[in-house]
User: Fold Carboxylesterase family protein from Hymenobacter telluris.
Amino acid sequence: MKKLFHLILATVMLLAAMPAALAQVDTTGGRYYRPVFPNVTISLNVAYGSAVTFSGTTQQLLMDIYQPTGDTVSRRPVIIFAHQGGFVSGSRTDAYMADVCRRFAQLGYVTASIEYRLGFNLTGLAQPRDTPEVARAAIRGMQDMRAAVRFFRRDAATTRQYKVNPRYIVVGGSSAGGFMALEVGYLDKASEVPAYVDITALGGIEGNSGNPGYSSAVLAVLNLSGATESATIIEPGNVPLCSVHGTADNVVPYLKGRVGSLLPPKYVVGSGLLNPRATAVGIRNELRTFRNAGHIPFEGANTNGQAYADTTFRTIRDFLRPSLGQPGTVLSATAAASRAAMLQAYPVPATTEIQLAAPTGTLFKQHTAELLDATGRIVRRFQWEQANQTLPRENLKAGLYFLRSPNQPPLRVVFE
Assistant:
């Protein structure tokens, strides 16, 4: 308990140490809260990567990108959404995905609805408890979503076609998409994946779905009727969590149990236990509970479904506002003109070394950086001399660290 207290205190102190001048958010006219943009421009069939499916074929991965029409802000936050369907069905064009992307784009966000690899091997499913197949499907989806995150960071560092702020990328999803978002946000060590999944054979946590060389770290996680393998993957120092879940969900349990419908056996932990875990380890979170509601009630086409959808939208909107005010936020067109280096440290987790990088096209200045352990103690001080350089692990123990640089939010580093 004492260690947890020191960790939370250290994280708060690190954030508080950042210059107040960087906490600038362009919210004039109700931006990110009110639909200030009546029209939305949609870019269809944008390729963000490719990956090998469960059957051995290669699938091109596509997304639809929604932008507020006429927006002049040059660095905007991004929300990446993934559809429901039990990893066997669904589409990025599903009605709910299109609607939620449109609504957040009207607030000023850039949003994306992604497709991801579906399907899994139907052999060997007659196990008494967990089948590895659903877990592997979730890992593949997680890898694809990570590639989508890296896609936007690559765009921000190169062509800047979508005018996004690479520090402010949120992931979310409905049902199966929620599984994926939770894993992107909180699954950061191979040791957290059950051995029966064989994460190495699947390409590791980051996967090979596209856009290598960029971080897949996110600002927050939106879990809509989703679940995951274990609540313990949520750890001190992780990003905020917003969950929406019906208490009578008979497909993805609100608390814990076996996934329902026609899916093979898989035992998971739902929002009713994930959010209390986040509270216990000091992570900002919100759980919107729909009493006696079933699975994904916000996707219903009737009046009740629209009411649930409206509540879900407002819950996400209000939850994300504090994250936009974090130190390091630069969303206004004026502040963006400086094009300061947005430093990255990856992979997360790392084994023998971490790659330090300032994206191409940004202004990098040599500086002294510090690596702090979970208690806030400086364990290494070094010169960051080049835009891209390697930091060896050397004798550092496994665990959570924070990389601190001048005028930058702390970067989370994990060694395993």
Notes: The chain has seven helices and 18 strands.
